[in-house]
Specification:
- The chain starts with 7 loop residues before the first strand and ends with a helix.
- It has two domains: 146 residues, P-loop containing nucleotide triphosphate hydrolases (Rossmann fold); 77 residues, no CATH class.
- It has ten helices and ten strands.
- A six-stranded mixed beta sheet has the order 6-7-8-3-9-10, sandwiched between helices.
- The radius of gyration is 19 Å and the shape is globular.
- Helix content is 35%, strand content 25%.
- It is of the alpha/beta class and 253 residues long.
- Strand 9 and strand 10 form a beta hairpin.
């Protein structure tokens, strides 16, 4: 699909989601610049996950509009939005533990071709995917472990595998939900480096609690509190904003 000219890949206007009268997201305006890393932060209950669910159309907004590459996707289905190139990874690693590392990536690669569950496909047909499997595993540092069962991977490597399977879907906009959650220092550094690497030719919108990761990676940060935009800008600005400091110190986590 030809990408239209313009700086923003996502434009949300007045985005609101109510649950039985409670507004989890309330009148949010947000622009995500193309080929940038944009972080969404805030205390628990701020509306970050709900906002992700609105962008991926898991939830339908109560009010407001969402535009992707200049086209209104507000009323589109999750499947249609995914086909446009909006792909989300989740906080809990979503891999097939009994399959090998390579098989996990191969399954993801087969999905766009429509042969993901056609296990009677010829070995020759499946072998055409192998070079791409190895390319993706090499990109996330898992090529030496390609034949290992996914269940046996350390947690940090499982997150790297999830990133590889997500990249296999060729996302134009990649939504990362707490990509460093539960990781130790070395794995945080590894995943952070991978995020920076994969951001070279795509856009990333991420929810992340580790503010040191946000400081290193994010080009722009949007702070949510009680479903509304509290502050926005580079880390140097939002980290010293008294409203942001108050939200974290006196927040509802």
């Amino acid at each position: 699909m030809t990408t239209p000219a313009g700086d923003n890949i996502i434009e949300a206007r007045g985005l609101t989601k109510r649950f039985h009268g409670f507004s989890a997201v309330s009148g949010v305006d947000l622009d995500v610049r193309r080929h940038s890393i944009h972080a969404l932060i805030g205390p628990n209950g701020a509306g970050k996950t709900t906002f992700f669910n609105l962008i991926t159309k898991v939830l339908q907004p109560s009010e407001g509009t969402i535009r992707f590459n200049g086209e209104d996707i507000t009323d589109e289905s999750p499947a249609r939005v995914a086909r446009r190139g909006i792909v989300r990874s989740f906080q809990i690693s979503a891999i097939f533990p009994r399959m090998t590392v390579a098989e996990n990536v191969r399954i993801a690669l087969q999905r766009p071709t429509g042969v993901s569950f056609r296990f009677w496909q010829s070995e020759r047909t499946l072998s055409l995917l192998e070079s791409r499997v190895d390319e993706l595993l090499d990109a996330v540092g898992l090529l030496p472990l390609r034949d290992q069962t996914a269940a046996g991977l350390p947690y940090g490597r499982k997150r790297a595998l999830e990133l590889a399977t997500t990249l296999a879907l060729e996302p134009e906009l990649l939504l990362l939900d707490e990509p460093t959650s539960g990781l130790g220092g070395e794995d945080v550094e590894r995943i952070s480096a991978l995020i920076r690497q994969v951001a070279a030719n795509r856009t990333i919108l991420m929810v992340e609690h580790n503010l040191s990761v946000v400081a290193r990676l994010a080009d722009k940060i949007t702070v949510l509190a009680r479903g509304k935009v509290l502050a926005e800008g580079p880390y140097s600005d939002v980290s010293t904003d008294p409203r942001v400091i108050e939200a974290y110190i006196g927040g509802d986590e």
